[in-house]
Amino acid sequence: MTEQQIQAGFKELAEKYIRSEYHSTCVDRRLGRRGFLELSEERYRIRAPLLDGIELDELERLREDLLGSLKSAYEQRQATIEKLENACSLPDECVDERHALIDSYLSQITGNRGEVFEVMSFAVLREYFRTFGSSLQRFSTTHANDGGMDFVGGEAIYQVTTDESPQKVLRDLAKAPGTKRVLVRPTMTPQIESLCQGDVLETVELADLLSHFVAWLLSRDSRSKSAGHLQQVLQIALREFRRENLAAV
Fold first, then answer.
1. Is there a single domain that holds both residue 103 and residue 201?
2. Residues 106 and 208 sit within 8 Å (Cβ to Cβ)
3. Burial of 31 (C-beta count, 10 Å sphere; 0-12/13-18/19+)
4. Does one domain contain both 119 and 49?
5. Is 156 helix (H, G, I), strand (E, B) or coil?
């Protein structure tokens, strides 16, 4: 396929599911031995070794599975947005209800490429740091070619993933060499910790998010009997999920 054909197909899917603009990096990042595309005479095709022994009907099933996954991810995001909108409209004194929703979404570490975990982690950390006069910014998972930077705050980047493999950590650490970073993950293991040397300032896992960051925000809201901080967390998350849908509209 030519890049123009790929762009036309991308536009058709984007209008249905992600409302994103095409960029040449969409294909450039998939070229080479670590990708699945190769370029020959200005046409892109799937790398031949990946097609060895694959029948046409298997490729058709794969295509349908990919389309189904894209549709499912879009529908899950819409459902999440609706729940967040409903939670944000609760009376101020509904602290426990907001806390329960944040807790449940932080614990969703599967599906949607970890988008829910990333967005909720960002919302919690941004509100926590804001309380102490600091700031945190996030790149879009759908649209950004971020070079390994999920969040940026102070002098460090934050790399967030739900992929528990050491290989994923090594790939992340290879990005932005020489840059101080914080790793945000569901869990930390001794094997992963052994890789976190040098530029890794700190690690934050799900237990830290729940027992420290969320717990602190909850304690302040419970004391005031008004969900000021937790409301901010939900509103930040809502803005981020809407941004994933509408960043290019």
1. yes
2. no
3. middle
4. no
5. strand
> Tokens 């910790």, residue?
193
Neighbours of 8 (CB within 10 A): 12
The b-or-e profile of 186-223 (16+ CB within 10 A means b, else e) is bebeeebeeebeeebeebbbbebbbeebbeebbebbee
Cβ 230 vs Cβ 102: under 8 Å? yes
Based on the fold, state whether residues 109 and 212 are members of the same structural domain.
yes
**Full residue range of the structural domain in which residue 45 is found:** 3-54
| pTM attached to this predicted model | 0.82
Higher pLDDT, 21 or 52: 52
In a domain, 79, yes or no: no
Enter the tokens of residue 74: 């879009």
Report pLDDT digits (tens) over 192-218. Answer: 888 887 889 999 999 999 999 999 999
Q: Are residues 40 and 112 in the same domain?
A: no
Is residue 131 located within the same domain as residue 201?
yes
- Using alpha carbons, select from 152, 160, 150 the residue that is nearest to residue 204: 160
